[in-house]
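Regression test case RT-17, inverse folding.

Input:
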């Protein structure tokens, strides 16, 4: 048999998840810039956040992703917290894109992890390209089809 579970209860897993989210949102970054006003380099420690992921959580708590899914995702006692963790990862990524924390050019890469794709955007933009004449012709064709 494998190693014992790191988290014995769903409450213990939930507590570790909350600690991980707090850690993600409270990263410190040392930045340097040149102040032309004072003609000197200035350093500052800024608070930054990183996106929460199941993989990041596993690394932080010292278990493999495979062990996480095997020991917790497959166990109905942990099903609620595992589902919530996945949903919170998705919401965290979406919020950080919408707030501009993460570069929007990375959106397809990040959001594809959560089942989103760009095909809906392509279909929507194609529908928006109809000029007024084409739109009128389509409406007339639909009206004729309904009359028959």
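Golden output:
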């Amino acid at each position: 048999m494998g190693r014992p579970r790191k988290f014995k209860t769903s409450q213990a897993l939930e507590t570790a998840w909350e600690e991980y989210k707090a850690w993600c949102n409270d990263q410190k970054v040392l930045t340097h810039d040149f102040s032309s006003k004072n003609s000197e380099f200035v350093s500052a420690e800024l608070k930054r956040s990183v996106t929460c992921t199941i993989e990041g959580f596993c690394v932080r708590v010292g278990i493999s992703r495979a062990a996480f899914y095997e020991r917790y995702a497959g166990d109905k006692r942990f099903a609620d917290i595992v589902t919530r963790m996945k949903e919170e990862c998705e919401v965290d990524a979406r919020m950080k894109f919408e707030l501009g924390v993460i570069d929007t050019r990375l959106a397809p890469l990040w959001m594809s992890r959560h089942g989103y794709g760009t095909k809906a955007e392509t279909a929507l933009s194609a529908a928006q390209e109809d000029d007024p004449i084409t739109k009128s012709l389509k409406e007339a064709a639909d009206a004729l089809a309904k009359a028959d």
